[in-house]
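The record is given unchanged here:
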Amino acid sequence: MNPIVTVQDAVTAFADFMEPTDAELNAIEQEMPVILADVDLLDAHIVTLDRTPTEVDERRIRRARRCALAARVALVNRTAGASLPGGAA
């Protein structure tokens, strides 16, 4: 048996305090190049789902994979450099 949800519960479930914090939004913004590169890689794979990949498709997938890897490396380098005290590497 499921309990009945009151109107107040439904209204407060999406209150302003449920919004992402500035720190969370900044983290998402920092990761956005990785997210976009992953979307491009998925797009390249999706194109080849219903057919045999052509040479152009394979190039597109390789390029998207390299871009995704480069975006991840750049993110790791940015976050690693920001977390070291004194700027030492």
Q: What stands out?
A: The CA atoms of residues 37 and 66 lie 9 Å apart. The radius of gyration is 21 Å. The chain is about 70% helix and 0% strand.
